[in-house]
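User: Study the shape:
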Amino acid sequence: MKELGDVIKRQNARLESIEQKVEESRSEMVIAKEELRKMRDHAGQVAQKENARHGPLPNEVKGDVHLLHNKQDLNEQFRGSEGVDSPHNTEVRKFLYEELKKEKSGYSKSSIMRAVTRYYETKRQQYLDSLPARKELVEKKQLEKKLTSRRRRLFAKRMKVASETERESLKQLDSRYMSDEEDGEEGEGGAWVVRSPPWRSQRLSSLLRRLQERVNSKQTPSSHPQNPRVPGMPSMRSPPKSSPPWAVDRSGEHQTPPSFDTPRAEIQQRTPRNHRRAQVKKVPRVGRHLTTPSCLEERVDGALCQRSTEYSSPQSSQSDSFWDSDEIWSVVCQNAPVRERRRKRVLDSGSDSDRE
């Protein structure tokens, strides 16, 4: 028992260390997210002031700046690691302005300079996103863009197959009411994990389900093949601030979502009274574990029997690494009631034989 207590202490210390690292990572993410928000707000305010003063930039001048800049050699392009007023970037801005002015495109001086400066800001943002310190934040931003794009496509497909009455209802909504479709893990055959928002009302979910069935029915052999979908944990997105009452169920907004990440199967086990009893047991995905649950149970039973004979011995042949596995402890805890009933049966049978 002393050795078992030491193992539990080591596991608790390991969990505390992991929790501390998670908290530190969360704090860093909050700080980085706040800095990025301030930068976006500042850039948006600057753009709004320029648009209010001079009007929006024409797409033609922005495209010309882009093409002219990328035609130059790398040593003659903007350096995102330097400020906009650095000697090198100042020369690049001057060159782009003079070249575009020579073409007599009809753009005003202020429009050309604004387009050149705006393109430098794009290069600056690309450089900042490439830094290792912001790698996690950039990946999260890219994932959000991917999910947003998929929700928009999903909303557009359902809008196409909706009837006139259903279309009027959908016009009150947007893509934020759609489910998230994330890339699945390896071993899931390229399936997308569907994460539905828990705050979505039953009425809206039923409507979207009917529309999706129509979308699927219109698929033909020549259509683009769809990725298979599997259910996942509910989305943690918050509902839009201004939502139609019929589309949102506020009672499910703060509920803890159930876990759907592990498939479950129903198996049959015999109880000591020879009755069948249904027991729900986790079934690991293919390739995740090297051993099956039945093999683990046999290993745990054998190890426990061996350890029970070792308590009186100063030496232990069973290494502690065997007990450090979370997988082993899961089987130990799960089968503890069954193991206790077996022990009582043995004791009862022994006492009956003594009385005889």
Confidence is low (pLDDT under 50) at residues 254-293, 307-321. Strands lie at 180-183, 192-195, 229-231, 264-270, 276-282.
